[in-house]
Amino acid sequence: MPHVHRRPKMSISRCALLCLSALLALSSTASAAENGFEYGSGLRGPAEWGGFCANGTKQSPINVVIADTVLDKSLRDRLDTEYGKCTYAVIINDKSAHHLDVEGDGSFGNLTLNGVKYELVKFHFHSPSEHTIDGVSFDLEMHLFHKSADGKFAVIAIFFNESHDDDAESPFLKQVFSWLPNITQPDTNVTTMAPITLESLPLQGSYAQYSGSLTTPPCTEGVSWVVMLNETQKMSCPQFGAYQKVFPEANNRPVQNTRCRSVTRFEHA
Ligand SMILES: [Zn+2]
């Protein structure tokens, strides 16, 4: 008796669905890779971003209205961070992301927030700021980007303003911005070969917490945001000038509707 190989049966509709979803997956990957995203009012600007960016209900950034925030006495007076020193960092002029990105040779350390431990994997900058406080914008907003073991995101936002004060130079920014002349061209990077320390970052005092999203496509939601409300950090005019020389274009997504989301606040005594 000849051995008959049975071909697995697949209905036409199932095949059609599979083919269709494969095609859709291909086209969405291709369009994301080809088109990317931009800022401003053009065809790829924030108003045209799709997916969660268009349909989400918990999007970021937001305007934090202090009077509408809810004081939460269970919040700690200092964020629970353990930031160590990386042995070196890679500073990237990321053309497709439209920002200056800093990645360590491993982890920069950890943040524990609401009982979840996150690893600080990189940080980057937006100018002008993405979040606003009572409608006020800032010159620069740094995002410390953390990821948990199960893939959740937490971001700490810190604001900087240009200052003419004699002591305005930011020692923290100096570690990064001194490398700007090495990455004037898009899609270039430089390895610092010197540790970047996060010790001088102001992670104590008042801050707000809320649930939002990534501020760039795909605008994934479920991101735990910590927006520092303590004293705005200073940066000197030459420091901000050096940044703007390499990144002259605005890269801030406009503020999104809070849709009655609660924003909690720790108020430093
Ligand atoms: Zn960001």
Automatic annotation (TrEMBL):
InterPro entries: Alpha_CA_prokaryot-like, CA_dom, CA_dom_sf, Carbonic_anhydrase_a-class, Carbonic_anhydrase_a-class_CS. GO terms for molecular function: carbonate dehydratase activity; hydro-lyase activity; zinc ion binding. Residues 35-269 form the Alpha-carbonic anhydrase domain. It is an enzyme of class 4 (lyase). Keywords: Lyase, Metal-binding, Signal, Zinc. It catalyses: hydrogencarbonate + H(+) = CO2 + H2O. SUPFAM superfamilies: Carbonic anhydrase. PANTHER family: CARBONIC ANHYDRASE, CARBONIC ANHYDRASE XA-RELATED. Belongs to the alpha-carbonic anhydrase family. Reversible hydration of carbon dioxide. This is Carbonic anhydrase. It comes from Marchantia polymorpha (Common liverwort).
